[in-house]
Design goal:
The protein is an all-alpha fold. It is built from five helices and no strands. The chain starts with a helix and ends with a helix.
Length: 111
C-alpha cells in the first residue's frame, strides 16, 4: 500500500510540476504535452491524486503516521522532480520501472 500511495503522490506532484509556468520543462511525451496544454484540468487531476495518496497512506498507517509519511514523500518527490527532471534523469518511464520494482518487492514481502 505504501508503494501505491507513493506512486499517487509522485504522479500528483508531477502533474502539478508540468503545469508550472516557471519550470524548465524538457519532456516531450504525450502525457507531458497533454498536461501542459490542459493546465486547469491537470491541476485538478494532480490535486485529486495527492488527496488520494494521502487517503491511502492514512488508511494504511493511521492518521498521524500516514500524514507524516505523505509529507515526507511529497518533499522527497518534489525535490527529485524539480532537480532531476530538467536533466532528463527522471522521466515517466524510469519512474514506472522504479515503482513496478518497488511494488513487486512489497508484494513479495522481501523487505
Amino acid at each position: 500500500m505504501i508503494t501505491i500511495g507513493a506512486l499517487l503522490a509522485f504522479l500528483g506532484f508531477f502533474a502539478g510540476y508540468n503545469t508550472s509556468q516557471k519550470a524548465v520543462l524538457t519532456g516531450d511525451t504525450k502525457i507531458e504535452l497533454w498536461l501542459r496544454s490542459n493546465a486547469p484540468n491537470a491541476r485538478i487531476a494532480g490535486l485529486l491524486l495527492l488527496i488520494a495518496a494521502l487517503l491511502v497512506l492514512v488508511t494504511d498507517k493511521g492518521i498521524g503516521a500516514g500524514t507524516f509519511v505523505f509529507f515526507v514523500m511529497l518533499m522527497t518527490f518534489g525535490s527529485l522532480i524539480v532537480l532531476l527532471s530538467p536533466l532528463k534523469i527522471i522521466t515517466l518511464k524510469t519512474a514506472g520501472i522504479a515503482f513496478a520494482l518497488a511494488l513487486a518487492i512489497e508484494l513479495l514481502n522481501l523487505v
